[in-house]
Amino acid sequence: MATFVQALRNARKKTKDKVDTTARGKEIIAILKKYDYDDGLTPEMTVSILEDLGPTFVKLGQIASTHTDMLPVEYCDALASLRSSVAPMDAETVHAQIEKHLGRPANEVFQSFDDVPLGSASIGQVHKAVLEDGTPVAVKIRRPGVVDTVVQDFALIERILETADKFSGNNDSAMDLMTMVKELEETSKIELDFTNEEQNLVRFYQNNEDRENVTSPKCYTDYTNEAILTEDFVSGPEVGDTKYVESLSDEERDRLGNLLADNFVEQVLTDGFYHADPHAGNVLLVDNGIEWIDFGMMGYVSSKQRQILLDLVTALVKRDNYNLKRCVLQVAHPRGPIDHGALLDVCEQMTSQFADSDLESFDTGDLLGTLTSNLEDEGYDIDPFLTNLGRGLITLEGTVKALSPRVNIMDCMTRHIDLGFDPANLERMVQNFMLKGIQGVDDLVGLPTKAVETLDMLQKSQIRLGGDFGVDQKTTKTVVFLVRSAIFAALAATLFIGACILCSSGAGSGREVLVNAGYAFGAVGFALMVYVFATIRK
Questions:
Q1: Fewest C-beta atoms under 10 Å: which of 180, 281, 425, 534?
Q2: Tens digit of pLDDT for each residue in 300-313?
Q3: pLDDT per residue over 37-96, tens digit each?
Q4: How many secondary structure helices (H) and strands (E) does the chain include?
Q5: Are 528 and 489 in contact (CB under 8 A)?
Q6: Which residues contact 274 (CB under 8 A, 6 or more apart)?
Q7: Which of 385, 419, 453 is the C-terminal boundary of a domain?
Q8: Torsional sign, CA 250, 255, 260, 262
Q9: pTM given for the model
Q10: Are 430 and 340 within one domain?
Q11: Are residues 401 and 449 in the same domain?
Q12: Which domain holds residue 111?
C-alpha cells in the first residue's frame, strides 16, 4: 500500500505543479473518440467505454452501480455487469514480473509453471503452478505499470472535478463524483498491493480452519509480495453453475445453502471479519462443503458493532419498536434535531414488514436497504459499516437463493442468537451480563443527583410539568433514599445472577470466591429490597 500511496501523492503534486501529465489524458481522449455519440450515451456504450479506459474506470463504474440515488436504474444494472476481463499478458511479460518481484526466474521458483493464464483482469492475471514440494498453487501476477496508470487517472479525475467545482459553484453532482473517487482510492489501495489480500487470506483461513465443511485457500507467504500472490490452487463448480446445482437433491441444496448462510453470519457476528463480495462466483462447492475464494474485498465489524447487530436483530424478532429505536440511534447519526416520533414510525414499519412476512421469504438485505433509505430520508447519516454489510447481505441473498430458495439468512441469524445460550458460551454470557449490569448501575448512580436537581427546579418553579409543583424536603429525601436503595439492589442482583451462571457452568475452585461473593451480595440485596418494600408500604 505504501507504494501506491506514495505514487498517488507524487502524481497529485505533479498535477498541482503543472508538470506534463498529458500522455494519459491523450490516451483517454483517443479512446473516447472511437465511439459515436449521435444517438446519445446508452448504458451498453457506457460499459464499453469504461472497459476500454482501464481498471480505474472499471472500478469507478462498479462503485457507481450501487448509487441508485445518483444514476437511473438501467445504468446501474448495466454497470453492475462490469467485469475487468482484458487481454492477457504475454508469457515474456509474466516471467519478467516473476523474476523482478521474486528475485529468481519462474523455472527456479516453481517445479512447473503454466504460461496459459486461468483468468485475466485489468489489475493482474492468474496462472497455475506447482511448488518445489509438489503443492499445486495459483499465482496472481500484477500487470506492470498498472499502479502508474491508476494513480495518473486519479490525479486527472480529481483535477477535472476540482475545476468543474470552481466553475459550477460547488455543484452537488461534482461533490458526489468526488465521493465515489475517494471511495475508489481506498479500494485501490487494497487491491493494487497484494500483501493486503495476503493478510486477508491468512486471517480468513485461520478463522475457518476448525469449522466443518468450510474452507478457503492457504496463502504461501514466502512466494507473496506486493505484486505476486501465491495461494492454494482450488477447483470445483461455483454456486453460479446452475446446471451442477440443479443436479443436486433438494436436501443437499438446503444443507449447502444453510452452511453458506450460517458461515457468513458467523463471520459477521463471531469473527467480525467477513467476505464482502459473496457473489456466486466466489463460492465453490467442494468435498461436501463450500470453499471461499477471492479475498480482495473484506468487511470489518467491531465487537461493539456486533453487539449492536445482535440487539437490533433481537429487537426486530421480538417486535420491540422502542428497543429497536435505541439500536438504530447507535448506527444512525442525525444531521439536526431528532424527531423521535418519526424515527419510531420507521422502526414500526420495519417490525411490521418482519411481522407480515414468512421467515422463509424474508429478505434481510431488502430490510437493511429499507432501513437505510428511510433513515437517510429522515435526515440521518448511516454508519458505513452497516451500509457495507447491507451490500454484502444483498449479494449473499442472491448466492444463497441460487443454492436453495428455501434457506433464509434471517432464520440463520436468529439461530445464531439462540446459540448464545449454549453452555459452551456461558463464559461469554457472564462477561456480557456483568458488563451490562455494571453499565446499568453506573447509569443509576447519576439518578439521585439528577432527581434532586429536577425536584429542586420544580420547587423553585424553574421548570413546569403540566402545572406548578411544590415539593417539600421530606419528599426529596424519600426519592433519594428509594433510588439509592434501588442502585444497591440492582448491583447485588446482577452479582447474584452472575454467580449462579458461573456456578452452573462448572466454575473451578479458582472462582469460588467470586461465586460466594455474588451469593453474599445477592442476599444483602434481597434483604434491602424487602426493607425498601416495607418502607414504601409505610
A1: 534
A2: 999 889 888 888 87
A3: 777 788 888 888 888 887 778 877 877 776 666 678 788 888 877 755 567 899 999 999
A4: 22, 12
A5: yes
A6: 264, 267, 268, 298, 299, 301, 389, 392
A7: 419
A8: positive
A9: 0.68
A10: no
A11: no
A12: 90-142+194-234
